[in-house]
């Protein structure tokens, strides 16, 4: 009987753990940080391209354009930094990343889903960059994280404001 209860609790615990929003990884190695940051840049730019095509609201399309421009530039800086400092990033972290399949198929609900995803993503990204800016080991990579933080925080503030607009639009 105790064994059945224990197994049931493990199963329930597994389902609730899966439903939680992933938290930024506290790993402060430069290689790990650069991989996470690179994937984030590519995801933001890729989803931004989709927003330019599919968003209903002009503000959401404009935000998508800002994501493409900002994260493409950040990616170029990141890759230059990685190359200059001898960090080899895996191919999976440097190209070919597509937007979430649910976002591609969102239809009329695209704006809300895109903005919600950008809000969660930028919250995690800011936390990740803040963590490396404080605890990072490589001075050059740490400086990059510190340099990018104001832009990332501006993106977060913009998407928070946009989230309020999208909520208002949905409620009407």
Automatic annotation (TrEMBL):
Keywords annotated in UniProt: Signal
InterPro entries tied to this protein: DUF4142, Ferritin-like
Database matches in Gene3D superfamilies: 1.20.1260.10
Signal peptide boundaries: 1-19
Domain DUF4142: 29-162
A Pfam family recorded for this sequence: DUF4142
Superkingdom field: Bacteria
PANTHER family the UniProt entry points to: BLR2558 PROTEIN
Name of the protein: Putative membrane protein
Source organism (scientific name): Mucilaginibacter oryzae
């Amino acid at each position: 009987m105790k064994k059945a209860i224990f197994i049931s609790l493990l199963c329930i615990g597994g389902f609730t753990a899966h439903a939680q929003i992933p938290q930024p990884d506290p790993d402060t190695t430069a290689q790990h940080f650069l991989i996470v940051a690179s994937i984030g840049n590519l995801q933001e730019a890729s989803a931004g391209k989709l927003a330019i095509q599919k968003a209903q609201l002009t503000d959401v399309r404009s935000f998508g354009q800002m994501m493409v421009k900002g994260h493409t530039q950040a990616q170029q800086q990141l890759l230059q930094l990685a190359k200059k400092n001898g960090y080899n990033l895996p191919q999976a972290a440097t190209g070919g990343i597509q937007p979430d399949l649910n976002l591609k198929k969102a239809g009329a609900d695209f704006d809300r889903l895109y903005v919600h995803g950008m809000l969660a993503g930028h919250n995690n990204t800011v936390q990740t960059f803040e963590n490396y800016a404080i605890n990072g080991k490589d001075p050059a990579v740490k400086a990059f994280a510190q340099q990018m933080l104001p832009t990332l925080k501006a993106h977060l503030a913009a998407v928070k404001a946009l989230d309020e607009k999208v909520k208002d639009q949905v409620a009407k």
